[in-house]
Structure formats: C-alpha cells, structure tokens
Amino acid sequence: MEPLIQDPPPRKVGIISRIRANFLAGIIIIAPIGLTVWLIWTVVGWVDGWVWPFVPDAYHPTQLLNRFLGLDGTNEIVINVRGVGVVVFLVFTVLVGWLGRGLAGRSLLRLAERFVERMPVVRSVYNGAKQIAETVFSQRDSSFEQACLVEYPRRGIWAIAFISTRAKGEVLEHLGTPEDEIVTVFLPTTPNPTSGFLLFVPRSEVKVLDMSVEDAAKLVISAGLVYPNDLEPEKALPQE
C-alpha cells in the first residue's frame, strides 16, 4: 500500500510580510481620506484667494477683531481663518440668485443677454457656459432610470450602460416600431464615465440589471474590480 502524500505545512508569515500588509492596509484607509481633505482644503483656499481681494480691508476678520477689541497696529491680532471667503461667496451667490429671480432682476438679465448676443466671441463663451451651468446645477429631477447591458461594440460583447429615457421626436419616428420601443442609452467609458456614447437601442436588445445605477457606476469606474457585493463578487453575477 502506497503511503499517503501529505500536504506540506503552511509557511509561516514573517514579520516583514506582516508589516508590509499592515502598511498597505493603512494606505488604503488613509489615501482616500487624505485626498478628500486635501482637495477640500485646496478648493476652499482657492475660493478664499479669489474672493478676499473684492472685500474691503475694513471688513476682513483681522480688522474686525482688532476694532472690536480696541487694539492698534502695535499689538493687533492677526488671524487667517480659511473658509470665511467661501461663506462670503455663498452669501453673495444666494443674494444674486434672489435678485435674479425677481421681476427687476429678470428684466435686467434679459437686457444684459441681448447686449451679449451682439458680441461675437463673448456670445459663444457665455452661451456655452450658461448651458453647462444649467445642465450641472439644474434642480429638475432627471437622472438615469436603470443600469443595463447592451451588445457593444459588436455582437457577443456586452458593455454596461444606463437607460436615460425613451426615444422621442424624429428619432422615434425613424426607428420606432409598434412591436418594440426605442430607449435612449448612455454607454460610459472606463475609467472616466463622464465621456461615452449615446445609443438608441430597441428595448428587446437591452438586458436590465438588478443592481442600482450607483453600483453600476462603481463597476465602470473601477474597471470591473468593484462589484455591488465586493465581499463575494461571484454572487453579484446573474445566475444562469
């Protein structure tokens, strides 16, 4: 009788490997937090540096505090509070929005836009910036409806996309049929989902996913590394 082959004993993890594993785990935890804090701190500082030159010196925090305490130039307190400029900017923006929504503000805005329309280069820049601002900051409740799979760029290859709405107008007249409706689908690129392709696909050729739009976006941004169930990715796949 042949002797049974025993598995080799597990290798012991050395102290260097443990330190390296802990270091990598710490990087994974610290990097997103540090990047977020750095980004917020940088943006706040940029807004402060842009806003403060428009604020009179008498209304700066240093001048207000020393005037309140009665201190002169010899023993005055110098303070630099980052973020005050952001507060000034927010208050100013709210005030402009409140005035612009009024009758006088709308009339003044239409008058200024008619003046801008007569300036060739300025007109193009203003109209483009206005369209971007209206799209990004619009308060209308419009978003992607569902995540889905479409065959792209050829048959047999599937890509994640997002259903935005049903096709309308001239597109529906040319492509729509009584048997199958046409849906408008946005197919994002990886890992930058802000660019992509606008597709008009028959609904019968679209496979709707159970995962949410947010989970599908994570899957696209991570290039397939982050699934909705990231602990057990195989359970996130549809079962045959």
Keywords:
single chain; 240 residues; alpha+beta; SH3 type barrels; 5-stranded antiparallel sheet; flat
Mean pLDDT: 77
> Stretches where pLDDT falls below 50 for ≥5 residues?
none
Largest sheet: 5 strands, antiparallel
How many DSSP E strands? 5
CATH fold topology of the domain at 146-236: SH3 type barrels
Helix content: 40-55%
Placed side by side, the strands forming the largest sheet appear as 4-3-2-1-5
Distance between the termini: 45 Å
Element order: H for helix, E for strand = HHHHHEEHEEEH
Question: How many alpha or pi helices?
Answer: 7
| CATH class placement of the domain at 146-236 | Mainly Beta
The name of the CATH architecture of the domain at 146-236 is Roll
Structural class: alpha+beta
* Shape descriptor: flat
How much of the sequence lies in strands comes to: 5-15%
